[in-house]
Amino acid sequence: MTDSVVAELIDLLALERLEDNLFRGQSRDIGTKYVFGGQVLGQALSAAQKTVPVERVVHSLHAFFLRAGDIEHPIVYDVDRTRDGKSFSVRRVTAIQHGQPIFVFAASFQEPEPGAEHQLSMPEVPMPEDLPPPEPLDPEFLARLPAKLQRWVTRGGPFEFRHVYPRDEFKPSKRPPFQQVWFRLPERIDDTPALHRSLLAYASDFHLIGTTTFPHGISYYQPNVQMASLDHVLWFHRPFRVDEWLLYSCDSPSASGARGLARGLIYDRGGRLVASTAQEGLIRVVEGG
Question: What's the confidence (pLDDT) of residue 144?
């Protein structure tokens, strides 16, 4: 892991401003067939944050994935300044590629104010330093995988992940739809809270919908399994840093109609609930695939 990988992700989320409400972002090939959904989430949030007074903080975002993104071409983000009230602002963002919307997004921002507080407790799990990093794949097995899948499973991504209960994604066994994953950026980055929120939006698309496959003994890596994010919701509760360990506690309450629903709670290592997520995704098993 090098800090250049982290810097590359930060640069990916920075965006080029074309006009007051129009931004352009590049794509990064991480081995997925299409643009990674977390990239579009993070870039859309970055675009929205650039049009809101700095004292207003995003507290919720709701997004729909409409079309697969082309890794080889940039994405344009068109921001609609829907409302600026006394305490809240709302922004709607449309991501456009090849002249068509591929993603729509709405986010609400609030000026911080005091109020009642409570939260669900963090699950009792080992700390990240007590968990081993993932084992590298056997080189002979890796050589038999398609080239794009090889790039995905061997990627030197910017985030470090440690699974509390790892499973073999190539030979998945059936198990209940729960998982906990510690994650962080391994390099210290700028203190800007807006940057940390965009990075969390990016990371929140990892592992979440995969939880829906656990009871069925299938995974994204299998050639007869088609999976795609349909929507994504993220609520921000408390301040955090993505360059410090965060716990992603995910569950899936339901799967039906070739769709699966997953939910996630994100805690810092001190047990503070910093964000919550939900996502529905397509899960299709193709006969003879």
Answer: 63
Domain assignment present for residue 179? The answer is: yes
Query: Model's pTM, two decimal places?
Result: 0.93
Residue 119 lies in a domain: no
Residue 159 covered by a domain = yes
How many domains does the chain divide into? 1
Asked if residue 117 belongs to a domain, the reply is no
Does 229 qualify as catalytic in the annotation? yes
What's the per-residue H, E or C state across 220-232? CCCCCEEEEECEE
Which residue ranges in the chain fall short of pLDDT 50? 1-2
Q: What whole-number percentage of the chain has pLDDT above 70?
A: 91
pLDDT in tens, 93-135: 999 999 999 999 999 999 999 999 999 999 999 999 999 887 7
Task: Look up the domain containing 196 and give its range.
Answer: 3-111+128-285
- Other beta carbons within 10 Å of 256: 8
Q: How far apart are CA 31 and CA 155, in angstroms?
A: 8
- What tokens does 249 get? 């506690």
| Residue 205 is a catalytic residue | yes
Query: For position 78, which CATH number holds?
Result: 2.40.160.210
> Which is catalytic among the residues 39, 49, 205, 268?
205
Q: Does the annotation count 97 as an active-site position?
A: no
